[in-house]
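Please check this protein record:
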Amino acid sequence: MRLSQLLTLTTAVAGGAAALRALSRRRSWEAQNNRVAICVDFDDAQAAAIRAGLPFAEMVTRLAQNGATHLSLPEWTLNRLLANGQLTPLAPQRPYTDPPPIGHWNYLHGDAALVAQLAAEMRERLPFTQTAVLDETTLAFAGDIPTIGELGLGFDRQMADLIRENGLDVAPRPVSYAWPDPDLLRRTLAQAAEIGRYVPFAGDMILGHEMHLDAAVQALADHDLTFVYFAHSRHQKGDWFIAKRRAPHVVLGHRLSPADMVPLDYHAACHNWVWFARERGIRFCYVNFFRILHATAPLEGLDYVHHLKHALEDAGFVVDRAVDLPAPIPAPDTAELALAGLAVAGVGATAVTNTLNLPEKIALPLTAAAAAGAFALPYLEKSRNQAAAARHNHSHEHEHHHHDHDHEHHCHDHSHDHTDLAALYPPSYVPKLLALGLTTLAPVAGITAVQQTGFLGWLSSLVYQAAGSAALAAVTSGPDYQLRIEEYKGFNLDWLAPLTAVAWQIPQKSVRAGALAALAGAWLLARRQGIDVLGLLDPGYAEGHTHHISAAMAALGDAQMALGPKPARKWAGLAPAGWAASGVLAGYGRIPESLAASALGVGGSALGLASFRRPERALAETMRLAGPSFAVGTAVGLLLWLVGRK
């Protein structure tokens, strides 16, 4: 083994070993992050109770007995109250004769207690409407229903009390509307804090989007509210900003859409919820009942909740009301990130040196430069971010000193521009760059090491794969990755680069050109379609087996699941086995077969690495399949070397 090869191997080992410290903290944290909440949609629960002829209080009690932890509570709006019949348009006996200050006079009839609460809220929130109560049961105000009707008017406190008294916690759902004034926003979130801690905003936008998101963040912080972040669907505008600012006071939530529920019954839905908890880190299940398809009776939703609770518990989760993330979320510090970068330097220098067959006088300085550069990157980025923050603070101090007189003329809040946000919450590109380097270069380093030094190279390839996996898991750890605020970006280079390295070695020019063209075409197609190929193959199936009326079809479906590409981590063993087969076949001059085995090996390497880039899945879950697979593949590879070597 050449000195440069020994140096790159040592560098990779140092990087992988350094990553283990960060991974140990993450593993301990993941063991505590196993609590999941089940929140039932208020409208569905109310509809089921009405159709079943059940008092709502009893429905809440039964939900609690069957495993639910929360019931959502939508914010009042006039539109909502009109739609469900709690308010009805009804002119009083003596309507106003004076002209309204805005719009026209509106008269809505309802229960006296409801009307009194709404009137008090509208006087505080919308004094220009001149809201009044006529005859105790008529709400009178100026304006019009399309404009005023969408505004949030607080929460039904009596309903919140009923929910809590019957065993469930409340999850308030503030609504979003046009021109959300910061004072209105702060009032709504203060009222939300009086009835619950976890806030799953209603609708397609976060209250305050987009000009007053700073006020929303501050109000959430002032009242110690936890933001429910629907990261998987990303359907709410402004959610990423809130999650970034409120972390770690964020819980990952999910809600199955009507389209998602069409092919499911509640048994299959429970398997899906377990999948989301296991593979995507969901800890707040927002549950809608099946109401048309797959719905046999109104109270079947209770069975759904009951099965969901037991499915989660059978998978090792604890159903609980308190699902706050354990603090702090472990993340590699600058020094650990720099040391993990050595793994990238080691595999990168190996891949380049072996692919280009560089002489020792070039390989040694290349390895040293790669190690120094990878080690320095986190420190350079930290220095850049500190300088940007200092410039931002100096700029704001200057503006506040010289422009106080402008405030009364320009008092509306436009939040921060993109430059401000970049300074306050600087983007971190180094983990992304290190992760991309590991996923693209580790498979190449593995196969080229085998081709260069045979059995010793194969042993080195095992080290490169293990060190690369550990470093990849470490650099993609931390709050931003755990909460899906940041995600690994591979641009499909993580399979293109390794397979291209193999195709480049095809001796026949025409075959080589065809293989390279096919790879380029597949890459362009995947990029155009926005598909992350390895990302699609990474997660496991929601169910452990298929369900068919025919036993033969069930057996066929189970075989397809067992032999299919998902989950990617079960194929980690193809790397050591394929690389060993490649080395043995090359020794016999079987070049086409050797290259095919090389492709199998780098494919297994890429699939194995893909398993370690999703920090929302626990390391123990990833290793449950990846570890045994890699061990079996290593044993098979060792056997191939022992039996097949000349």
In short: Confidence is low (pLDDT under 50) at residues 399-419. Residues 36-75+161-319 form a domain with the TIM Barrel fold (CATH 3.20.20.370). The first helix runs from residue 3 to 32.
